[in-house]
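Known limitations

Files may contain more than one protein. Parsers should not assume a single record per file. Below, a two-record file is shown to illustrate correct handling: read the sequence, read the token line, then continue until end of file.
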Amino acid sequence: MNHTPRLRTILSCTVLVVSLGASATACGGSDPHPLSNKPYDADGQVLFSVAPGGKKVNPDKPLEVASKSREGRITDVTAVDAGGHYLAGELTADGMRWRSTAPLAAGARYTVRVATENKDGKPGSRSLTFDTAKAKKTMEVEFGPDPGTYGVGQPITATLSEPVKGAKARAIVERSLSVRSTPAAEGGNWHWVDDETLHFRPKEYWPANSKIVVTSHLDGVKIDDKLYGSATKPLKLTIGDKVEAITDASAHYMTIYRNGEEINSIPVTTGKPGFSTRNGIKVVLGKEYFVRMRGSSVGIGGNEGYDLPVYWATRVTWSGEYVHAAPWSVGSQGAANVSHGCTGMSTGNAAWFFETIKEGDIVQVINSAGDYMEDFGNGYGDWNVDWKDWRKGSVLQAGIREGATPADAARLRPAV
């Protein structure tokens, strides 16, 4: 019979398994590694600069965490608000003290988690939740334009309720205002028009048929001295087809393109000598079916004065430059410049243009004897600013060469 050897082999394997089990039990015995146990409560070891559940904390003061004795040390500290934003801080080399290096947000709730170890290396933990007081002085941000569909030339605007002057404070504002387009636009940054106004544009026009989302992360953020940001509703825009109207003042014709293809060519008249139409790129500001145009409203009187009912008027400057119907000058359209600065065309062509164009579309004038469109203040002359000069209007981009690596850019930007 051959059964006995087989039984012997099975028994031997059984003994081996039992032996290994006993050995494993012995290895996990009475002296476990310190890190294998649940962290101890470090309440008696850690001291916070704020009290839990008490009076709301002044956000102008730093958060500090200290070890009460040298019998243990702090190994890590995280402080995060309800929005998931981490508070930057530094831990001393000896693990005895941690201090925040960035301002606390105003009107926020923070949760602080502290990891410690005692003199034997055993880990401990302690957590604290506290609220900061609301800011006494806040700054609101108003984004523009209103939600809707616009042309590829529409700049984004941010109007501040309080002036911001210092480079450090401006850097905080710029970092906190986000513009995202889908598909992505090449480049793009904020440009400070003045202490209370910023404009944003990409290097080239927005991609046709893109989506733009503008958001502010300034709520509760310390900007300067005792000035804090407040909440701002995100802005969502849709960009339509790329529509450009190019007016050649010397040829007396306007050519309109949609997504790069010519769709119409219209005989026009522009400003006569002494009233020459501004050169440069303008952005459509709005459309008015009827406008009463009076020369006196723009300082034109005497023999040059006028008072006319005007239809199908598309505005391109705040000072009163329009593209509009001018049935009184049809004989000059395509041949001579006889207006006081507006671009005139037949009623039928003006109606077609009015229906085709939208806010944010491009109206460019070339070969006029007039001055160039103002960069700011009389509509949107943003696209007449050279890209290098546009970047100089940003605290974060000024002095950083285009195409710099993220590491180089971070090194050259102002510290916050």
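...continuing to the second record:
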Amino acid sequence: MRFGLFGTGPWAHMAHAPALAAHESVELVGVWGRNPDKAAELAALHDAKPYADADDLIADVDAVAIALPPDVQAPIALRAATSGKHLLLDKPVAFTNAEADAIVSAAEDNDVASVVFFTRRLMPEIRDFVASAQEAGGWLEGRVDHVGSIYTEGNPFGASAWRRESGGLWDVGPHALALLLPILGPVTEVTAMAGVRDMIHVLTRHDGGAIGTMTLSVDAPPAAGREEAAIAGEAGVRTAPNAPWDPVQALGRAIDELLAASAGGPKPELDVRFGARITAILAAAQEAIRTGRTTTV
């Protein structure tokens, strides 16, 4: 499958470009970025062609891999899906329900396969945990703490403008929801509160009555940092395993799923429809923070 890579930042360098270049069933055709010099540099590292125009790259490939801020990703993904190109997107797929829903509609109308890259959800340890939890059922609550700082020395994401503006809710919130949703079920209501140092606290009510609790931050004191997840219910208390953080391996699995789906195989669980549901929950949480009221999803 011929892929075009959109984005030239740290995530494109660390995950997308090496995973695409290493995959035996992928040809990395070209790279587009908002900075032409960076696009040329990244393309040269992987024997690809730099593109000055995003639509030219869309026209030359079968699929797009996007490593860009959500508000930049969404219109490119929409144009690609409308052109019948398969989608490998980053999370969140968009900042607004309207943009996310438009991508879903374009993908469905044009028989486009899609995967949204939720890094650890694609690792075997987390997949097995989720599958086992789904089989057991009867869960009353779920808790995810995803608390850290992107502003420590050497962290490549600290310079990300959209992460600085949108914080942990939109950056690590998608990862937390990607774990809770398949276990607790669809979200019907959200309430949330923001504290100092980007400490975001979110409560979700799920369709079967379970409650999810998320604590999120990308600007917490290092001593307060933690990544923990647990569920509780009729089967007891289960703690999610510590899966390795290996974005290249995880993205390779996402590519495998996309290739299989494009050939008529099963639709990936983490597709744009799933990504749009997460955008809806995050938008509701943002509204709850703004108004101080519970918001319906």
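Parsers that stop after the first record will miss the second one. For reference, the second record is described as follows. Residues 272-291 form the longest helix (20 residues).
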